[in-house]
Every structure is written in C-alpha cells, then in structure tokens.
Automatic annotation (TrEMBL), chain A:
Belongs to the B9D family. Its main location: cytoplasm. PROSITE patterns: C2_B9. Component of the tectonic-like complex, a complex localized at the transition zone of primary cilia and acting as a barrier that prevents diffusion of transmembrane proteins between the cilia and plasma membranes. This is B9 domain-containing protein 2. GO terms for biological process: cilium assembly; establishment of planar polarity; establishment or maintenance of cell polarity; opsin transport. It is found in: Cytoplasm, Cytoskeleton, Cilium basal body. It comes from the Eukaryota. One of its GO terms (cellular component) is MKS complex.
TrEMBL record, chain B:
Residues 832-969 form the C2 domain. This is Coiled-coil and C2 domain containing 2A. Residues 372-399 form a coiled coil. It comes from the Eukaryota. Residues 52-62, 406-424 have a biased composition (Acidic residues). It comes from Haplochromis burtoni. PROSITE patterns: C2. The keyword Cell inner membrane does not apply. Residues 427-438 have a biased composition (Basic and acidic residues). Keywords: Coiled coil.
Amino acid sequence: MAELHIIGQIIGASGFPEKTLFCKWGIHTGEAWRLLSGLKEGQTQVDSPQIGDIAYWSHPIDLHYATKGLQGWPKIHLEVWHQDSFGRCQLYGYGFLGDDFDEKEGGRETEKQSEILLTAARHLNSAQFTCSCVIQRIMRHVYRAVNIHTSI
Amino acid sequence: MYSFYSLQIQVGKGLPTAEEAFNFFTLNFDPDPPDVIETSSRRRQKQRKTTDEDEEHEDSEEAPLVQTQEDLFVIDQSPQDFLEIRKAEYVGYQKLLQLQSELLFTPSFRTVPTSIKLPENMKPRYLEDEGLYVGERPPVSLTNENILENRILKMEEGKKWFGDDGRIIALPNPIKESSTRPPLFHMEEALDPALQTVYRKSKYANLYIAGAADPEGDYQLDVDVSGLIFSHHPLFSREHILGARLAQMYDQYLTRQRNNLTGHLTDKLNGLRNALRNMLESHSGLNPTQALQQRISEYNLEVRNTRHLRDSEQEKDRTLLKNIVKVWKEIKALREFQKFTNTPYKLYLRRENVDRVSDEQDYEDEILAEVVELEAETEEEYQNKLAEYKKRLEEWKLCRKKQAQDDTEGEDEEQDVSESEGPTDEPPPKPEPPERPDLGSIEQWVREKALRIRRKPGEAILIPELSASANITASELCPRAEKARREDVARRSLFTKILYNDKEVSRTDSRSLNTDFRVHFGQIFNLKIVNCPQSISLQVFEEIGSSCSLLAQVFLPVPEPSVVTGSVPLEEFEFSSNQRVMFDHEGVGSDVPLSFEADGSNKQSLLTSGKVSCCVSWGIGDDDVPLAPPISQQPGGGHLDAVSYIGASGLYDMKKIGEWAKQSRLDPNDPKNASIMQLLKVASSGEVTAPEYFRLEHLQEEFNFVTDEELEKSGRFRLLKLRNQEVAEFRNYKFIPALEREVTDTVFQEYEKRLKEGEVIDTKEHLDSHRALVAKYLQKIRESVINRFLLAKHHYLLSDLVTEEEIPTIGEGSGINLFKLAEPKRPLKPQRKERKKVTAQNLSDGDIKLLVNIIRAYDIPVRRLQSKPFVEVSFQRTVLQTATADGPNPCWNEELQLPFSAPNGDYSTASLQSVKDEVFINIFDEVVHETNDKNRGKSIQTHIEKRWLGSVKIPFSTIYSQSKIDGTFKVNTPAVLLGYSKEKSHFTNSGFDILRSLSEGTFITLFITVDPQLVPGESVREKVSLNGDLKKPLFDTQEDERLLQASERFERDAAQRYPDRPCITTVIDLSGKTVFITRYIRPLSPPKELLDEFPNNPLEATPLVARFVSLIPSLPDQVSFSATCDLWSTCDQFLTLLAGDEEEHAVLLCNYFLSLGKKAWLIIGTAIPEGPTAYVLTLEQNLYLIWNPSSGQFYGQYDTFCPLQAVGCLVNADNVWFNIQQYTSPMRVSFDITKANLWKPFFSRTFSHPGLSSVQPEELVYRRTDRAAAAELQDRIERILKEKIMEWRPRQPTRWNRYCTTTLKQFLPKLELIRGQDVAEGHRHELQSLLGDYRISGFPLNLVFSEIRPIIEAVYSTGIHSVQASNVEFALAVYVHPYPNNVMSVWIYLASLVLT
C-alpha cells in the first residue's frame, strides 16, 4: 500500500493575449488510486494583473492518495480561461502535466517548476462559441505552472 | 574410436604420447554405434596407421611396443562387426505433406457458409439492419477471418463464438482515429507552416435541410395556439376546484354515454344467452356430441366473461353518477356556506320515468337468468371437484393397499423399508371430499350485487345535465378575501412563447386571465425554417403587473410530413408546474395541502395544471404543395427525444427516464445513448459515482500489490478519509499514525456505535422523555441545517483566498511619520494600540488565555459582623481566586489569567463557536472560625470557610463573538442568604425611586477578553450580504422578490450609516427559509393557568408571564447550530423544542404582551453579556419598560444597570423602525416611533405593507401541567445531588440533617409563589428558632430545568461541599414547580449546619 502526497501550487500564467485569466484544474488517476484527502479538482480566482504580464493565482494543491498498484499515475490537467469585462468566459488553452509528474529521484522529494505549454482551444467545435470574435489559431502560450513535490 | 579396453592398455605403459593425449581429449569414447558406416572406419584405420608410422620415426625406442599394440588392436576390431550402414532416410515433399495432413489440422481459407455457423433452423439476424447500433469491427483480412472461422467450427461448441449475424463476435474497434495526446510544440522552434490551422466558419452542417439554403425552397411550419384551460390554478377558489372536478366527471359521463358500453354488453349477453338456449333446445332430445358439448361450454364461458364485463361497467356507471351527484352537493353546500357563487356550473338531474311493471319484470328476469347460470356454473365446478376428489381417493386407496402389503413383509426388512421409503414415498393424506356449494346463497348474492350496481326497479333514470347558467355573485357582494382573489385574477394575464429548437421564435399576445380560467389566444404562427425541427415547445408565462414568471413548458411533437395545415384538428396538451404558491386570500394556491372534509382529513395538494390546445402542421405553399421536408432528411428518424416524451420536469425523475428508456427501446450500444444508460445504471445500482470514461487498464489485477479488501480494511486510510470528510469524531485529529499497526480499533468504536445507534437517545441523560424527544428533534434539525451550510461554506469570496495588502500611499505614510517625530512623548498617556488578531489555524493548546479583570462589586450582602468577600473564577475546571476585600462594596482590581483549551485541540472557527463552556464568576465570603481544641489545651485551630454569595456566568461563545466583555453585571444572588443581610442603599433620594428599587441587587464590574484576540467567525448571512451580486439566494424563500430587495437595501443602508447598530428585517426559520421579521409578531395568549391566578386583573399576570417565558431554557443558536446563523423558530416550535435563544424568548414574550393588551415592540439591539440580542419594550402609563426575556426582569428606560446597551431597531407586527438618532443607549433614545426623523420605518407611503400573514399559529396549544412527573423529577434530582455531594467529599462523612431538610422543603414552594422577589424576613427567624443550636449558612438556588448537568454544575460552583468542619451537617431540599407545557422551575435549597 503506497501513499502519495501531491503538494504544490499553480503559480500563474502568462503569454496569453489577455491578462484576465483563471484556471480550472483537475487530477486524474487510474483505477487503483484512492483519494484519501484533499480536493482533486478546482478552479482558481480570476487574476487581472495591473503590473506585469503574469496572472498570479498561487493556488494551492494538496492531495493525499493511496494506491494498490503502480499503473495510472496521477496526471494534472489545466485549462486556462479568460474572463472578459462582461463576465463571459472563454477557454484559452489547456494542457496536461502527465508522465513527468511522477518523476522521482530515489524516492526523495524533488522540487521542480514545470512549464506547461498549453494547447490552444483549436480542438473545440467552433459552434460552441456564439461570438465570432474568437480568434482561432494555434497560440503558443507559455504556462508557468506547478511546482509539485511528489513523494512516495 | 578407441575402445576403453585399448586405452587401459595404453595407460599401463606410462605416459601417453601426444597423439594419445590428443585423442583422449578429443575423441568420443562411446562404443561405436552399429550403424556407423564401415568404410569410413576403415579409412580412419588407415589414417591412424600412417600417423603412427610417422611417430615411429620420432621416438624409435617405443616403436616396437606400439607396433605390437597396434596389431593387437587391429586383431580385435570388434565394433566393426556391429556396424550397420544404411542410406539416410529422405521423405519426399508430397509424402511429407501427406504425413503432416494426418497429424496436423489446417483450416481452410474458404468462406464458411453462414448456415453452418448458426444453430440449425436459424436465419441470420443483422442487428445493423434492424437499426441497432453495431460498432465498427476491428479490421481483419478476409482470409484470416475465414481461417479463424473454419478452425473455430472444428472445435467443440465452436458455434458459440458466432453472433446472430453469423460473424464472429467482436468488440468495436478500440483504436481511435486520432491520437489522444496533443502534439507538443517546442518553444524554440517556430511552428511548421504546414501545421498551421486554417480557420473555417462553423456551421451545423448536418442539421440543415438539404436544399433549404436557397431562399425559394423553404419549409414552413404552422403552429396554431388556440388557447389554454387551467384544470388547476393557484387562484382557484375551493369552489373552482370542485367545479373543475365536476366538469371533468361530467365529461367522463358524456364519453361513457356516447360509447354506451353497458348497452352493448347487455345486448351481447342477451344474444349469447339466446343462442345458447336455442342450441340446447334444438338438441334437447339427442345425445350431445363431443363437438356440441365443446361449443356449449365455450358459449358458457363467453356468457360468463361478458356478464363480468357488463357488471363492472355498470358499476362504474353507477359510481360515476353517484360521484357527480356527490360533488354537486358539495358545491351547493360550499356556495351555501360561503354565501357567494364563483362558478357558473349548474347541474340538473333529469328524471326519465319508466314503466314500473315491465321494468320490474326485466329486473327479475335478469336476476333469474343470472342465478340459473351461476347455479349451473357452481354445479359444474362442484362436479369437477368431485371428480378430482374421486381420482385422488382412488390413488390414496391404492397407496394404502401397497403400504399394507409392505408391512406384512418380514420384520427385519421393516427397518430398511421404512428408512428407504419413509422420506420418498409418504402416503398421501386422505383427500377431503369437496363441500357441496350452497345454492340458496347465490340468489341472495346476486340480488345484493344488483342492488349495488344497478338502478332499483321502477326507479326513474337520472340523467345529469351540466350547464353554465348559474349566476356568479358580483364582486361587491363578496367578502374581502374573495374580492382580493378576484382582483388578483383580474391582474394576471398570460402569454406563450414558441420555442423552436430551444430558441424563442415568437410569442403570443398577452391575454388576461378570465374568471373561468380559460385563455383564448387564437393565433397561428408561420415559421419558416431552415434547420431540421428537433423540438417545438410552448412556454406558458403568467404576467402580474410588469413581472412575468414561467408557469410550464409544453412539448409538441414534430409532425409527420403528411400532416399539413387544415387537415389536423386541434389537440390538447396537458401541462403542469410544481411551483408552490400560497395566498392569504381565497385562492387555494398550488402545492398547498387542503381538505374539503370538515375535520381537515383527506388532505390533498393540487398542482397548477391545465391543457393547451394547439396544433403543429406543415404549411401549404401557393400551389398546394406541402412545405415539408422529405422524410429521409430528418435526422434521427426513429430517435425519440426524451424531452418531448416525458417533459422537461421529468428529466429529474429517474423513474420516468427509466420508463422512457424502456418504452422507446433505447439502444444500449449506441454511443449517443451512452450517458443516459450510464445514468440509469448508476441510478438503479445505487452507486454514487461512476466514471464517465473508459480506461483500458490491462494487467491491472496482475500488478496489484494489495487487494481492494486490504485497502478498505486499512485503519489509517479510513482515519484519513473520515478526517477529510469532517466527521465529528475525527474532525480535529491533528496527527494520524504513520503505521497501520498504530491505529487501534478503539478509535472507531465510538463512531461505529453512533452509526449503529443512530437516533437512539439516552433518556437517562435527559431525565425526562420529552426532553429526549426534543433533543432528538434538535439533532435532526441540526443535521439538515449543517447540510445547508456546507453549501454556503464552500462559497468562497475573493478575500478568503487572496490577501492583498494595500500599498500605503507615499503622502500618507511620510506625512504621519513626520508628525510623529514632532509629537512630544507622553508616557503617562499611552496610545491605544490595536491588538493583532490571530487566525485560528496558528493556535495550539496553551496559546490562548482568558483574561478576567475583576474590578469591583456593589451591594454585596453582608454578614452581621463583617464580611470579607472574594471572587472565584472557574473556567474549564480551572479555579482562580482574588484576594479578599472588605465591606459591601469591595474593590479588587485584579487580573486573573485562565488557560483555555479548545475541544479536541481544534482551534478552527467552527469549533470555537461551539464551545459550550461557561465562565463562572462566584462571589464568596471568607469566614474564619477559631475553635479551641479542648483536648490540646491552648492551641487554637482556625477554620477558613467560604460561603457562596452569588454568581455570574458568561458563556464562552459570547466572549468569543464579542471579543471583549466590559461592564457591570447583576449578580445572581439567592433569594435568601441565611446569616446575611442587605445594607440599605445610600442613594435612594433621587427622583426615580420606583425604578431604583427595581434594580436593587448586587452588581459586579468585570472586564473579560481573550488573549490573543481571536477572529470571530463571520456569519453566513453576512457573507451573503457582502456578496451582494450573488444571483441565487442562498436560502429558499417564499417572500416576494420586491420585499426581499427592499429589505436588503434597508439593511445595507443601515449598515453603511450606522455600522454598530444591529438591523434585522429578514430572518431564517427552522426550515432554512428566509422570512420577513414582522411575520413573527402576532398576539398569542399565554397559558390559561397563569391568567387564572389573577382573575380580576389580567395585567397583574404580566410578571408571571415574563417568568414563564424566562423559565424556558436558553440555548444559543451558535451552539446548537454550529455555524453562526440565527435561526428563528415560531412560538409553537419554541414551546415544543423548549429551547431557544433570546430572540425566541423575546418574540414569545412580545406576543404574550400583545395579547394582554399592552403596547409592545421587539427591540433588536446589543446587550451585555449577550451581544446582539432581542429585548421587549412595553409602554405602560407613559413609561417605557425594557424586558429581558431570558431572565424575566424588567428595567425602566432610565435604569443605569439595564443590560441593554444599544437599540438598533424596533419591530412589531406592522413595521420595522430603524434607529437613526444620534445615540443608541436606551437612556438617551426617544422611543416615539411616530417621529420619522428619529425612527426610519421600513414600510412607508412609498412601499406599503403588503399584508404579510403571520407565520405564527393562530393559537398556542398548551399541555397541562403534569404534577406527577414533576414530583418524580424532584425526587430524582434530589437523589442525584445527594450522591454527587457525597462524591465530592471523599474524605469526610456527609451527614444529612433531616429536620432541617423538611423545614426547607416547606419553604421552597412559598419562594416560587413570590417568584423569589421579596424575601420574607420571617423565614430566617423561623429557621433560626427551629434550629437554634446550629449555625446555619445556606441559600436557595433557582434554576431553569433543561438537563441535569447544569444543575450539578451550579451546585458544585457554590462550593457548599467544601466545608471542612468536622461536625458539619448538610441539608438539601429540591422543589420542582411545574408550569404548563413541561416548563419547570427547579428550586434547590442548600444549607450547611454546624452545631455550636
């Protein structure tokens, strides 16, 4: 019976066309994993930075998993949304922090800051947007995110 | 190929030659196989010879020896004799194939005919053709498939691998068309231009009807909305309900009449009977043939069935008629009762007289025919049974005979026989002969039935006729409530929106609602469509004034292409809404239980419902061409739309969806239905979560290192989970053991016990079964409220998550600093510094201290000689005391620090709020006795004794929510203090003599705070109001939207202008609904017993009523409902629960005062020590009195010691007034609410009182005082207290003075009678004279009864048990005075006696 603590935070995002951003996140695991405590999905507040380009959320992630097998390591998925001045929300990008999420160094805690490149929302059916002003092209966004400690 | 033998010889000669050595190591020593080819051997032999010869030249000495050896060896060359030489065996390819074909099986690659693959006589079934979804099969080459099939077919049960269509069963192709992992882009490299996506405008490609794009080829859908009729509407009066029922039944009657089933069936029956009779007559003489008999019996059966059918139809007719008449009678009675007519319905009963004689004849004939038939039937049945019986009897006899034979066989065999046959061949029981049916009773039965379901012979036929000719009473003649209803009806109007594919396309005009609740629209809408019709629906809206609300949604079916305008009749579609509507006028509302019975039984709730008549059809073009798209273009042709089938409201009903899925035979394999099937599966299996995805996790099982059971069993994981779920027992666990073995089972024991016991509440703890029930009920409410709050709790505000400290502006920062530098230092005038607030999570045990500063006290009772009072503060079993002071007005000015520890070490806000501990502040008098010990001569022993004088208790929750408590409190002093007297007040010369005397008592000045300062929890309501733009209200409500908005505005304004004045306009009731506060105020009469005590002047009963209210136990909401939220219960709930906080007490007291004819208001204000609270204000003879509802005491407006500190607003049944004066202190406030510049009213001319009905019951029902229960309770308390006192004195014996006890017991009822107010001086003298030899100190305590624990606590805190004198005796008397409704006043008289 192994246990896994995932502690970290979603720091913020930058490089999107707009700066008023928030993030939805979730952690997915295989069948063998049981969540003991903590929330496995959530949403950050909307940050609209006055100075600088980075929207900071500093959103904490704290989960405790138990597992009966080694398959299906947790993956975190992130969606970056933009909220405009009318309160409408649009998906700006999404990404996975997948296999390197469980990267370990001899079972010791490692601290690393990953940058996830988010895929822009081009896979979504354009019909979902009633407003045609959504610019649809691949946007190269740097997602500065997630320093995660994993320990087993 | 040397033999072993030859080698031996060589060894014997000493060292081997190199060649030998070589041979030794390289050659095989096995004896040569016989089949070695001889020739080769010889060749070798020769070779060997030559090599040997070569060697000879090298070492000649050994040569002869070797030579001879060689000869010897050559001579017996034995292996050669056994060798056999043969050709290598070669099998030709063809032959090999032949051989292999015998051994191996090679399946053919020819296609297998389908008939072989299926079971015999089965046609292949193609699911795909039947419209079922069959996934795409994984690609396999045809040859491979054929080979596989052929091979499988050879196997046993090979056919089970094939599906109904004759193909191998296969799962859908699992391989996705595209990769699920999005491609990664690297920052450094520019994106390949080939990968650049191209933007194309989206379109509903598959939804457009082909050909619709060009403007000519359009399709038109005509929606005809004719009108709607309500079968129930909230504005229906009772008469309307009955009227609707009558009309409905009349319709039913008419349909039945039209169909005339009864007539048809009667004719059929007669025809059958005739035919049967004819048949019997024509063959009467002859022997009936087999076929004829068959036919006769068939006819009989038919007759019987028809008769049953006719009877049931007749009965239905009869009951319907009866019901119509019954409802009509009800309507008439209702009209009579209410004295006006609302509905135009009028029922006439037309009588159609019949010829009596012939009618009777028919009736009798019918009965006779039926009796004859029934007799025949019963006879037949009897015969059948008899035959059966005979058969069974025969069998039985046979069996018996056989058994008898068995018995006669040998004795020794008997054992075996009985053993073997015993269980298997039990002789059948002797069959009972059937009873002969009683033919006489048949006729009676038939007659009874006829009487029940048929008209009596000769009675006139009643034909009901419903007409709408009755006169509706004019509105002027109706009572007020009815008038209000009609006005309400007139104000409403209705319109419908037409939604096409969930988009509003048009709407009808708004038509006002008629008095008959029919609305006629009569509008036809021509919809030109380009999208395929998927759903067409109508939304019925009701308009009141400018606001409109959705009543219901009706889904219309999309018509077939053949349905064109003009050819279809209007159809009626039923709709209903489950909205709850309530009125305070005659309208019955919707979803409100109502009863037509006099005793209120048989309640039913009617929902708003009705029918829309409309039709949808395809339009016709100019040239008579239907403007309908061809069938093939309609997507999802056979696909039933769930919404149009069950209606939108049904979507939340699992059962309905399940039914629908069953009826529409939803294809479970179709991915379109996957989600709904999943939902149904989850709903039926009762599981909570099911993943929405499928993950192929192969080898999962194999790689598990533990099983699921082990994972479930783990105590550590369970503990972690429970802590995460915030289960009460585990919520405050800080550390959970890291190792499984350290988790003991005992941890869960309590939790499991609670789960198991559930709601069983120990009556022992509550002493009283009623309180146990109440506790149970409170527990239930608490749970439901907690659930409600869980939602609210997760509603975070930005400030909860993000702390942004404001950057100080430069000007401000530097400016002040400059001033500060210039400021002179004034050490004697220290500046007040704001204490830093500490959030709860940073705390641990021992960090928090309770600081109690005891400053001084006034008017302490004094002993005859002198008194040395000191104060003892006890909190959480820590006891600290001050030094002693002197005199009746001592000054201590001492700070005591008491440690505080939260329950289970949890310092979260929620936990701190629920701390139930109280701070006890007891005033004692120190008495020093000096006794000369006679035996020891000159030594003097000093006993120090403390005597309790009074106490103040302050709950920790108050300190926590107030963060500090500062003020002068009245000390609860016992009514009688033996051995003490009050010093007369010195300042009774002022003008308020009467008031002065009221506030007489002992007072103590205190300052209490918690160090470090804790952040008090925000109440949920506050959070909501902060979050002003929150669209959805947190709590349900039935209040009008406008009223809520106005109240929110009012409260916000008040909070902005006067942030420290409490203002409440809406409160939350026990069911969690927001209710306007004035609804709580309504005159309610107090218990009759209380008023009966003063038959002459009911006003005299005022103090008694106040006392009754104060005797209901207090329970702060924070404690009972964990979250900080004020819940207001109505008076009847309060009296049932027998627990509530100040608001409930105040509301009840205010309502009592109103019923006594006083002018009374509720004061919402702040008081010490309660904090925000509710008091009651009364106006008596131009004097305002302020009543503390929880103590029952009253204060004059100008009383300095009135605990009320600030007045926020006043409430009565009509209005709420907010204090906008300069001051809040009751002394400086004018209570004249008519002055608009002092009191801001909620309802004013601009927003008038909408006539809010009260939430209080019309009358309170009181249970009578149960004296027996009180007496029993009294005994129990006395017994428990005696035990406790003895337990607290483990070292000394505790003696009880019976004589004193009985004396005290007699005195207690008197104290209750005078309500402990004025102490009879005589009592002391009486006691003193009775017990002259004793030195007595003692006092009576008066307590409210809720539980036994607080009583014990109170007794303990007096410290009476701590008397150390050796010859002390005790007296304890308990008296429980019962008030109505189980309210109890408990008196405990405690005394210690020392013999002098």
